[in-house]
Amino acid sequence: MLGDYRIRGRRATEIAADVERAVGTGELEPGTALPPLRELATELEVNPNTVAAAYRLLRDRGVIETAGRRGSRIRSRPSLTPRDAQRLAVPQGTRDLSDGNPDTSLLPDLERAVREAALAHATDPVMYGGPALDPRLRALAEASFAGDSVPAAPVGVASGSLDAIERIFLARLRPGDAVAVEDPGWGSLLDLLPALGLKAVPVALDDEGPLVAEVARALEEGARAVVVTSRAQNPTGAAVSAERAAALRGLLAAHPAVLLVEDDHGHGIVDLPFHPLCAGPNGTATTTAWAVVRSAAKSLGPDLRVAVLTGDAETVDRVRGRQRLGAGWVSHLLQRTVAALWEAEDTAPAAASYRARRDGLLAELAARGIRGHGRSGLNVWVPVPDETAAVAGLLQRGWAVAAGARFRMGSPPGIRLTVSPLSAPDLPALAEDVAAVLRTRGGDVRGI
Prior knowledge:
By secondary structure, the protein is of the alpha/beta class. Helices cover 39% and strands 14% of the residues. The chain contains 15 helices and 16 strands. A 7-stranded mixed sheet has the order 4-12-11-10-9-5-6, with helices on both faces. It has a 3-stranded antiparallel sheet with strand order 13-16-15, with helices on one face. A two-stranded antiparallel sheet has the order 1-2. The longest helix has 20 residues, at 348-367. The mean pLDDT is 91.
């Protein structure tokens, strides 16, 4: 069961910490079965309730999973092992289309904005007890949300989209709560849920966003929260359409207590409109607990760890209150830099460039009988019958792509290709290589 490893500890927290440490060091591998409660209690000479409490802590932290009579075992992908850590090494000379990064040539020059933030700091330094949100960034965020028909509401700031979403979850959910998430979806979010003791309920989607029937099923199964990527969905590029938004609003209005989180991380790199789910055209709120998150990472640079969020007053107040107890605030040097860039940013050229690359690659693939997906954002998603063979075959041909397993729960296999490093002359060769690894002997592009 555990091989040579012996769990140690007298208290529940000590036992849980010992198992978690062993998983982190590799001494306990994914899939390893843990001893039954009474057996471990006897070995450690503790009460079985102590072991039960330890296992409960480990389950809430996403380290183990319990399958009834089959007992408990280390999760196949423990929450302390992020999906992004399982990437293939990219050989020298290989074109890397796997990382999901923006094109650095489309990012703004930081020098002037950083200098402006430094000068502002020299004349008006932020000290303890100061405002958490830079006034200029607040005004820009409020105008941006208002321009997209998001109801007027308090604004907060966090260190990136995932930090904002985690804080929203902690403000509104408890361990054991179910969260409806897109499948395939953002791997980091799928890792975050078990780490917080939350249960992911997969929801299928198409190019226009989550399917209404799938969200309805998740709500019927008891989902306490729904997370929707508004645009540039990772990995499929889906963007919520006006029609899909209206249908989802109608569904969510019947479940007003469900937390709605809209992740608009694609703000600034897409040329499709934002269709809010939190409120309809008349401004009436869809749910009582909601939040919209916008990040600077894709349009201004991944190292600018700033995201703004808005939402119902109670949710935002909880987020800001808990933030004050921990990190305190997001650096105003970063906030002022982002505000200066955001104010001067012209998003149209970057959005047009990414669209041209996606559309060009999708057209080349279609010409070879391959259907891909990439309505918005940085990526193109290609369904494949065998991810391992597709990734290996493309690697042999000089292309590193991301295996869909990083993004999937129960959805069919696929591969993700980031278009940022590509130029127009690259597209035919890439599409031909994708077709080659999917082509059968008979010539049909169906499988390997």
